[in-house]
From TrEMBL:
Residues 165-283 form the UspA domain. It comes from the Bacteria. This is Universal stress protein UspA. CDD domains: USP-like. Pfam families: Usp. Belongs to the universal stress protein A family.
Length: 286
């Protein structure tokens, strides 16, 4: 994709990537590679917050460590976070991407709150989505969405490079879905093909604003869009996963947490299900 001023992606001027070191054997972050290649494609500034989760005496499981042992672990995690930031800055320089880094060492939950506050100062935030020991990924994604007012791209493992040629817009007629599609317009306009996907029976699909009524709005913005109404089968999340595979989607755009987070927690929810397993990066807005 071009990074010239005529490219739709030129509307994206700054991208934040957040990653947190929370253990000696942390998995590699896909969000870093994705965010770097996205910033290059858009000609945007890249900010990397490589944080380390500083241990706190309030954590009951630390009872086996003395103060000296905790300090040693904190220093090691801080060194790892700084190494991640330094390596990313070097890769950005080689790619011709303007990049700044910060490496805060903070206890939980301050490490999450700082990222959410920084997200308010950027067009979008790129974060990892995957199972972690303390589910810090999901906590960070939720806080960034609810506290920043900015969209988040949640990147599953293995998606180390930005791509958005083919995009699915998960459409349920809600305000969250409309917000997500609007926030994602630079990507939708740059894509080769966009499919609006609604899941449910006919009465559910037409209970709010049908995808066929939303499509002309995207067309007026220069989006190459089609509409696909699908039965939800085993569930909306499973249907979206299957359709994303059939469509060969590079990205899924969706409104996040239409219901309260408490209700999503107790009764499941499309957002949480896709954050656990998704065939493509999720562009989320709330």
């Amino acid at each position: 994709m071009s990074n010239s001023s005529s490219s739709p992606l030129a509307a994206i001027r700054d991208v934040l990537v957040g990653t947190t070191v929370e253990g000696e054997s942390d998995p590699t972050s896909s969000a870093i590679g994705y965010g770097l290649t996205l910033a290059k494609a858009a000609g945007a500034h890249l900010t990397v917050q490589s944080a380390s989760w500083r241990l706190s005496g309030d954590d009951a499981w630390l009872g086996d460590f003395d103060n000296e042992g905790v300090a040693v672990i904190d220093r090691r995690l801080d060194e790892m976070a700084r190494a991640v930031a330094g390596n990313t800055a070097g890769e950005a320089a080689l790619a011709g991407v303007a990049c700044t880094t910060e490496t805060p060492s903070l206890p939980y939950p301050e490490v999450v709150s700082r990222l959410a506050a920084l997200a308010r100062l950027h067009d979008l935030t790129v974060l990892d989505a995957g199972p972690r020991t303390y589910d810090l990924d999901r906590e960070t994604i939720e806080k960034a969405l609810f506290l920043s007012g900015r969209p988040v791209i949640a990147v599953p493992p293995g998606h180390d490079a930005f791509a958005a040629r083919r995009i699915i817009v998960a459409w349920d007629g809600s305000a969250q879905a409309a917000r997500a599609a609007n926030d994602a317009l630079p990507f939708l306009r740059a894509a080769e093909a966009v499919e609006i996907v609604s899941c449910g029976d006919e009465s559910e699909i037409h209970a709010e604003v049908p995808g066929a009524e939303f499509a002309p709005h995207l067309t007026r913005h220069g989006v190459n869009v089609s509409v696909n109404d699908l039965p939800k089968g085993r569930g909306i999340a499973d249907t979206l996963r299957t359709q994303a595979g059939l469509f060969r989607a590079d990205m899924i755009v969706m409104g996040a947490y239409r219901h309260s987070r408490a209700r999503e927690f107790f009764f499941g929810g499309v957002t949480r299900s896709l954050l656990r397993v998704s065939p493509a990066p999720l562009f989320l807005s709330h």
